[in-house]
Design brief:
Family: Belongs to the IMPACT family.
CATH topology of the largest domain: Ribosomal Protein S5, domain 2
Number of strands: 11
Structural class: alpha+beta
Distance between the termini: 20 Å
Radius of gyration: 23 Å
Helix content: 25-40%
Number of helices: 5
Strand order of the largest sheet: 2-3-6-4-5
CATH architecture of the largest domain: 2-Layer Sandwich
Number of domains: 2
Shape: elongated
Protein name: YigZ family protein
Domain Impact N-terminal: 20-125
Largest sheet: 5 strands, antiparallel
CATH class of the largest domain: Alpha Beta
C-alpha cells in the first residue's frame, strides 16, 4: 500500500531559461489550496507586469489528485501541459509551477515553446528541495481517566504521534497514524474494553 507522497519544502529560487531573445522565468511553490495558488499567481503578475504570458500548472491532493494546466494565450497545449508533464515526471503534488515569459520578438513555434516551458519548469523543480511525507489517518481515542495508563502504554508501545490531548475526567487523545499501520492500530484499540476509537475525516 502506497502511503507516501512527494512535495517541495519551500518556494524555489527564480530560474531563467532563454531562447532566441525570449526569457522564461520559472517558479515552484508548495501549495495546499486554490486560494494559495491564486495568491502566488497575482503576486507574480504584479511583479512581472510587463511580461507577455504567465503560464502555469498545479496539482493538489495526496491520493486523489486535482490538477489544472493553463496556456495563458500561448498555442493550445504548448505551455501548461509541458509544465504539468514535469510535475508528473518528478511525481510531486501540492505544488504550483509558474513560467513567466517575456517575448523577445522572434516566434519560437509550438515545438520551441513546448521545450522552453518544459525546461523552465524542470529547472524550477531541480532548484527545489523535495520531501517525502507519509499519508496519515487521524483518530480520536475516547476513554475515562482510569484507562489513562492503558492508553498511554499503547501509544508508547506503537510509537504513535499524539496531535492533541484533553486529559480530564472524560479524556480524548487525537492520534496521527500512517495509513499502512492504521487498520492494525484501530484493531488494537478496539480490542480494549472501555476505550472508544473513531477516525476523523479531515
Amino acid at each position: 500500500m502506497k502511503d507516501t507522497y512527494k512535495s517541495i519544502t519551500s518556494a524555489s529560487e527564480e530560474v531563467l531559461y532563454k531562447d532566441r531573445n525570449s526569457k522564461f522565468y520559472g517558479y515552484a511553490f508548495p501549495v495546499k489550496t486554490e486560494e494559495e495558488i491564486n495568491t502566488h499567481l497575482e503576486e507574480l503578475r504584479s511583479r512581472h507586469h510587463k511580461a507577455s504570458h504567465w503560464c502555469y500548472a498545479w496539482q493538489l491532493g495526496k491520493e486523489e489528485f486535482k490538477y489544472r494546466a493553463n496556456d495563458d494565450g500561448e498555442p493550445s497545449n504548448s505551455a501548461g501541459m509541458p509544465i504539468y508533464g514535469q510535475i508528473q515526471s518528478f511525481e510531486v503534488t501540492n505544488i504550483l509551477i509558474v513560467v513567466v515569459r517575456y517575448f523577445g520578438g522572434v516566434k519560437l513555434g509550438v515545438g520551441g515553446l513546448i521545450n522552453a516551458y518544459k525546461t523552465a519548469a524542470q529547472m524550477a523543480l531541480e532548484n527545489s528541495k523535495m520531501i517525502t511525507r507519509s499519508i496519515d489517518r487521524v483518530f480520536v481515542v475516547k476513554f475515562n481517566y482510569p484507562e489513562m495508563n492503558t492508553v498511554m502504554r499503547m501509544i508508547k508501545e506503537n510509537n504513535l504521534n499524539v496531535i492533541e490531548q484533553k486529559l480530564e475526567l472524560d479524556c480524548r487523545v487525537f492520534l496521527s497514524v500512517r495509513k499502512a499501520d492504521a487498520d492494525e492500530i484501530l484493531k488494537k484499540f478496539n480490542s480494549i474494553y472501555k476505550i472508544d476509537i473513531n477516525e476523523l475525516d479531515i
